[in-house]
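Entry 12.
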Amino acid sequence: MYTLYYLPGACSLATQAVLHELDQPVELIDVQQLDNFTDINPVGSVPVLIDGDSTLREGAAILLHLLNKHKNPMLPTSGASREQAIEDILFANATMHPAYGRLFFIAQHITDIHAKQTAFTAAAEAINTLWQVVEQQLAGRDFLGGERASAADIMLAVYFRWGANFPVTITQGSNTSRMLDAVQEMPSFQRSVAAEQTQSAA
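Predicted 3D structure (tokens):
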């Protein structure tokens, strides 16, 4: 069994959903209930995954580890489709995730109301540009990887949910909206959201 350290609603939600897609059992630990999480991850961020004697601390590395370890249709074994799946994961992790991360930074560190809203607007514009890239890639297909949701689709659905927490206007095209709705309706995704809520309430 895997052990996943998480924060409710954070990017660790995508890791849990992928674990469910892979039909792998997982124990969840809410880091808010720990006093020593930085002993596990000095950076203090989630997800952290324990796999036997190994501790993995970066979201994209964790997902690639899981997808390479367990046979699945989300990560092709070779060729251009595999390269594209990896690129999509890295786009989600290294490009879209930091773009949304700026919203959290602005909310926490800018106190002047006018400066804060100006920064929020600029951050939202950058995020909207990235969603346009996603919209173009989804032309003629249901998900980034084709007919089936990929790990990157799941990651993007998690990030998308963050936007509602901020006074910004973030828009997606029709292709993207359909993809995001479909991912959030997946049993693995809904199970993950419910598990976080149950675990955190315990």
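Annotation: The domain at 2-73+188-201 is CATH 3.40.30.10 (Glutaredoxin). The two ends are 21 Å apart (CA to CA).
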